[in-house]
Design brief:
alpha+beta, 2 domains, about 425 residues, 7-stranded mixed β-sheet
Length: about 425
Amino acid sequence: MQKAAVIVVGAGAAGLMAAIHAARVAGGRRVVALDSATRLGAKIRIAGGGRCNVTHHEVAADDFSGSTTPAIRRVLRAFDVQDTIAFFASGGVDLKREATGKLFPVTDRADDVLRVLVESATTSGAELVYPARVTAIARDADGFLVQTTIGPWRADAVVVATGGRSVPRTGSDGAGHGVVQALGVPLTPRIFPALVPVRLPDGHALRALSGLAADVELLVTSSTGRHLHRVAGALLCTHDGLSGPAVLDVSRHWQTAVAADPGARLLVRWMPGTSDADLDRRLQQHGARPIRRALSPPLPERLADIVCLLGGVDPVQSGATLSREARRALVGAATAWPVPITGTRGFAVAEVTAGGVPLSALTADLEARACPRLFLCGEICDVDGRIGGFNFQWAWASGWVAGGAAARSLNLAVEPVAGWDRA
């Protein structure tokens, strides 16, 4: 029977940060992070195309969905963007800000991000044990009994950082949900993929434009036409549907809307800088030229042709021959086209999981109200951010809070700390 003061279950982004802070606060008592992988940090290594978007230059609670904004804000304040920058700089990895506001390592290497985390965990005194899959956790009078594939462990406090269900090939297969439920910790009614591409019907014209991108505005509306959520950004046509930053960001909001109201829709404004009235005037004044040229630019010509077809108009038809009804139909297709989504590409490619353990079930220190000395952090919580490094910032901040609180729960004479440079 192995024993530790604190066991962290999962050594991904949140788990490694939790282990680092727990070890720094634990005063020499044993801190162990267990992970099922044969090689740590799969999600870190593949993030950002292998560059790892560590965070965003400006992160606010409003950038996240799921649990309440005040609860998310409390966690983010404990370890903010400047703390993240300082932490990685202390390990020899400086971050650079790109035009989008995303922060990447100056080396453009995700492996460098992982190296800092692993080295920091080791130098802080945490042990990383893998592969060791946790199959169950039980609470008793002596603390926690943690069952693993390499034998049982005893712990005084446990931090669960097993992730959600996104990209299960990296190890986050949702098993942690069942583990915490067995300890009385509730989950949200729905757990679903977020930051995920959407599918279009077989044979849809847009699927023939795979690789083509355009800046658009996306709007989720209720069945009554009420505006629910708006996103602006790049849309990418793929071989089976739509992707790109704007589509990924809006995907969780469209799924939430449809779950509550099956008549909810996702609308695309293909020309976000052009009003309906301006486009209508442009079409009326287009004369003998092919109508596609009224849309291109700004749209790529191939996309302009498809938008014309979506409006029931021949792209080579002259503007002068366009009837009032046809003109209105084309304006509608260009400014409020309803996307015929057949579903998403699911957890296999989703960048994050929506739903999980609500923060209302946890204290401000991310301790489970139903199970003292059990702490949760990262993607297993009902917190998901928009694209751009926000979910990594949640991992760093929530891991920092949970790891430090787990160590302090051991009744050590250690003052609470907040922030990398103030620990």
